[in-house]
Amino acid sequence: MSNKKSGTKLRVSVTSGKTCEEIRSGYVTKMGQVVKNWKVRWLSLRNNGMLKYYKKEPKRGDEKPQGEINVQKEVRDILTHDQVSMLESVKWPENADENTGFGLVTEGGRVFVLFCDSIEEAERWITMLANVAANVRYADGGKKIKEIRARRQSVARPKPCNAKLEVVPDPEVKDDENVCYVHKIVGGVVIKERHTVNQTVPEAQGSSSSNSS
Asked: What is the model's pTM?
């Protein structure tokens, strides 16, 4: 018996679900990476983990940021004010009040250092960042961050940014058709292949033997 496959590809279309939205924004003061000076920056965090900073609050929505970091994928530790103070490369300015600062440590070892106008604002930023930092591994076991999050329980966890699949309906199948489906993932998109399997019985080879009397 031999199988012969023929068929068409049915694409499973992807439709956007909940769009990625901004979950926190505001002005903070950030330390420069090369020159260790302090400049006010507008910070914007989205529920997909993207954190961007601008010179000023963007108005049109298409302004290019000064920089960005994927908190969800790239941040391995979140530092409190006291933990940042232990770094030799950081010296808080005079206008940075106690416990108003925090830091983000990336997988590559880069440290983003920032401070806010108040302790409440800093703790709200820390809590929201911790909520989206899926790969964070706290050097202290997360004790200090847990204490802050306990004080800021009103800061809601963001809803995930995702998408939903809309399956393309299969065509009608005749009763006499033998159909099978093969699913593949191509470029992040599910491809559903529909195949009709034609089964044929090969001819018998050679002659059958006769019974002798």
From this structure: 0.65
